[in-house]
Design a protein that fits this description.
The chain is α+β, with helices and mostly antiparallel strands and 366 residues long. The protein is built from seven helices and 23 strands. Helix content is 21%, strand content 37%. It has three domains: 128 residues, no CATH class; 67 residues; 98 residues, no CATH class. The two termini are 63 Å apart. Strand 15 and strand 16 form a beta hairpin. The strands form eight sheets. Strands 3-4-5-10-7-6 form a six-stranded antiparallel barrel. The protein has a four-stranded antiparallel β-sheet with strand order 2-11-13-12.
């Protein structure tokens, strides 16, 4: 029997034992209005290519190279410019929400001319601007292509896409995006996937955690939270608490099928009404064989080859299964596996069940 001391130790262990939360953190389900990245884009040149750059037919590459050289004090004649080792590219990047001047961001580089390969190239200084027309970063550096392309006049070997690449940390932020986050008194959380049930659960969890109606659901996407008086000048701490609260999200009943690859993904909320499913295959085999026909000894005629065709029809045994009302995903998988249905057969079966009105889920065909 347990004495009082052992009981106290057991109770203390249960209290101090780690708890494993069920659900998903709010930070993984939502975004905060105003806290987002910004797209940057720029036009630049990649130099140092081994004869795999743009051809002389890409006039904008020649013009860009001449302009760059003239800004450096070099005067050239357009007719004598060769751009085999140069490629015109578009440079893109994403400026994080709280980027600071001097921080580095990755950039992506893609050819816009007829260059064959950007491997070994170096991106020249390229200003990057946002949708407001202001320049926020400058990119430059060695390209990482991660592909190869070799060949001659009659054969070619290529892996991945050699006309695009990245420059890790290749852009330096020169202007900070405007963000007045620290002075907010009202936070607006937006679900990544709109759902009334999920938003209502999230609102209830936040209000229960603070013991006051600080959160209010606006629609199926947005939840507004008023900053409590006790958290004035402590906004970062408040946001950190909110985003780590666990919520059990709801989702639509959905089946996603890919006819090209035979992939099938079913959600846990998929339900099927009472329905009978029959599965059977009809196989038709046609084969041809060559048969030699020759005349009798000392007879007239000649030896010829006569084709002989044979056909064989095999119909596999048809199986009928009955799935009762409200069958779950596990019941559906077990029943269809029992009749030996392949992934491509399952796609046809689900389409037929949907047409019959017995599938209570959205059927998405990719």
């Amino acid at each position: 029997m347990l004495n009082i001391k052992n009981i106290l130790i057991l109770a203390l262990a249960l209290v101090l034992a780690p708890t494993f939360a069920q659900g998903v953190r709010i930070k993984d389900l939502t975004t905060i209005e105003g806290v987002r990245g910004n797209q940057l884009v720029g036009y630049g040149l990649v130099v140092g290519l081994n004869g795999t750059g743009d051809s002389k037919d890409t006039s904008f590459t020649i013009q860009s190279l001449i302009n760059m050289l003239e800004r450096m004090g070099v005067t050239v004649e357009p007719d004598k410019v060769q751009v085999d080792n140069v490629a015109a590219v578009m440079v893109t990047a994403e400026l994080p929400a709280f980027a600071r001047v001097g921080s580095n961001i990755d950039v992506s580089v893609a050819s816009i001319g007829d260059a064959e390969n950007l491997a070994g190239g170096t991106l020249m200084m390229t200003p990057l601007k946002a949708a407001d027309g202001q320049y926020y970063a400058v990119a430059q550096g060695q390209l990482v292509v991660g592909s190869l392309a070799f060949g001659g006049e009659t054969a070619k070997v290529q892996k991945n896409h050699p006309t695009s690449g990245r420059v890790p940390g290749g852009a330096i932020v020169e202007r900070e995006p405007y963000n007045d986050f620290s002075n907010l008194s009202l936070l607006k959380y937006r679900l990544k996937d709109a759902d009334f049930t999920t938003l209502e659960r999230m609102t209830r969890v936040v209000n229960a955690y603070y013991g006051a109606p600080v959160a209010k659901a606006i629609d199926s996407v947005e939840m507004q939270i008023n900053l409590p008086a006790s958290y004035q000048n402590r906004l970062i701490e408040f946001v950190a608490e909110i985003e780590n609260l666990d919520v059990t999200p709801d989702s639509l009943a959905r089946i996603v099928v890919n006819e090209k690859t035979g992939t099938i993904v079913m959600g846990s909320n998929v339900r099927i009404s009472t329905v009978a499913v029959s599965h059977g295959n009809l196989s038709l085999t046609i084969s041809e064989a060559a048969k030699v026909s020759q005349p009798n000894p000392l007879g007239t005629g000649r030896t010829v080859v006569v084709p002989e065709t044979s056909m064989n029809v095999v119909e596999e045994k048809s199986n009928i299964i009955v799935m009762n009302m409200g069958a779950s995903i596990g019941d559906v998988a077990s029943a269809l596996n029992a009749i030996g249905a392949s992934p491509r057969d399952l796609i046809a079966i689900f389409q037929a069940i949907k047409v019959a009105g017995a599938l209570h889920a959205e059927l998405v065909i990719l």
